[in-house]
Amino acid sequence: MKKLGLLTIVLFFVYSCSTPKTEKLKEGKWLAQLQVQDNEVLPFIFALNYNDKNVIAIQVFNAEEVIDVDEISIENDSITIKMPVFEGYLKGKFTATEISGSFIKESLDRVVPFKAVFNNDVERFKVDKTPNKNVSGVWETIFSSETEDSYLAKGIFKQNNTKVTGTFRTTTGDYRYLEGVVDGDSLKLSTFDGAHAFLFTGKLTDSVLEGTFYSGNHFKEPFLAKRNESYELPADTTLTYLNEGYKKLDFSFPDVNNKTVSLSDKVYQNKVVIVQIMGTWCPNCLDETKFLTQFLKDNKNEDLKIISLAFEYAKTKESAFDKIKRLKEKIGVEYPILLAQYGNSSKQKAQQKLPMLNHVLSYPTTILIDRSGNVRKIHTGFNGPATGEKYTEFKTDFTQTINSLLKEKSTK
Questions:
Q1: In 3D, which of 25, 21, 19, 16 has the Cα closest to residue 95?
Q2: 24-118 has which fold?
Q3: Four-way CATH pick for 137-227: 2.40.240.50, 3.40.1390.10, 2.60.120.1440, 2.40.128.120
Q4: Beta bridge partners of 98
Q5: Does the reported pTM lie above 0.85?
Q6: What are phi and psi of 192, to 5 degrees?
Q7: Fold that domain 252-407 belongs to in CATH
Q8: Beta-carbon contacts of residue 389 (< 8 Å; ≥ 6 apart)
Q9: What is the DSSP code (8-state) at residue 53?
Q10: Per-domain residue ranges for the chain?
């Protein structure tokens, strides 16, 4: 009997040691930091809460943007946080007040170290000095100056004491919701959405901003900006156009049911058609997809159709379709999203699939087609809600253009 009692005690301690109790993550605000290049860290804040069923929900904050995250799994002391729509996820080990691991994008073989710490009073960036500069206003910007990869941008920022919000618009879209601070004469801005992890650092004078842009831990480039309140980028309707000898767009690609869909199908004849060139991995494309989905709901018309062409860097056809299905379900997309390409998202190869275009300069690119099948307008890039007034202007112009096309009759 004594031996049995001893055995029971031994087994109890063995079992207890082999199954440690998992700590519960604390509710409240957390500061996450991704390790990028040059020993810089890219910060963002999220809130972690439990619902009445004790299930974790997370909200990620970027200025006015709030991203709801509900695909979270826990196994012992490991946590996986899968961001909505995009393939990127955070994975790591945790205690009640700390998570340590990586931000992972499998299709691109990218892994960025990260750490998150619970702190209800935390700020995105630490400020050591009172601001002696104000970044509010418009900035004429060039990235990677004097290289073949240089491109123009328009910085639009608002500063309130130390805090700064705004974005950089480019000819191919915007850098979405940036949030940060002015610390003395230093500007620091970041955003994280599960697709992009962006950090901007720079030094300010009264009229010049010079700094570095980091994307994850795989890319960085310099930028130079000068104050110019009247600066405007080239119109987004002048950059992409039909090559000489072409009047119409044509394509045939499979939908999520592997059924081939063509612009020449009967369902699109004598209709106004919006064709979106996009990728499920692209935040600007997500902004536009949300806009188009809502636009179609608000403007129900049998004579208005939308088709999206997805160019995916997913490594297999099956995984590419999985990403398309996930996007459709998350956003409630009711129009077809066709798989135009998988394995990479090369713009050069995209242009080969659509040889009637002079180039595919940006994801997204949006083509408006009239009832006769003629291309009437092409928008390169997308100025999303982070661009404020520009987004409002775009919505007004887009609505007016579609309504005008719907009133026209086919000339066929």
A1: 25
A2: Lipocalin (2.40.128)
A3: 2.40.128.120
A4: 117
A5: yes
A6: -145, 125
A7: Glutaredoxin (3.40.30)
A8: none
A9: T
A10: 24-118, 137-227, 252-407
Q: Is 90 exposed, middle or buried (0-12, 13-18, 19+ CB in 10 A)?
A: buried
CA distance linking residue 178 with residue 190, whole number of Å: 5
Report residue 172 as tokens. Answer: 């191919």
Rounded distance between C-alpha atoms, residue 363 and residue 359, angstroms: 11
Closest CA relative to residue 182, chosen from 217, 260, 130, 110: 130
Closest CA to 384 of 288, 281, 296, 274: 288
pLDDT in tens, the chain (412 residues): 444 444 444 444 444 444 455 689 999 999 999 999 999 999 999 999 999 889 999 999 999 999 999 999 999 999 999 999 999 999 999 999 999 999 999 989 999 999 999 999 989 999 999 999 999 999 999 999 999 999 999 999 999 999 999 999 998 889 999 999 999 999 999 999 999 899 999 999 989 999 999 999 999 999 999 999 999 998 888 889 999 988 899 999 999 999 999 999 999 999 999 999 999 999 999 999 999 999 999 999 999 999 999 999 999 999 999 999 999 999 999 999 999 999 988 888 888 899 999 999 899 999 999 999 999 999 999 989 999 889 999 999 999 999 999 999 877 6
What is the number of other CB atoms lying within 10 angstroms of the CB of residue 140?
A: 18
Check: CB of residue 253 under 8 Å from CB of residue 260: yes
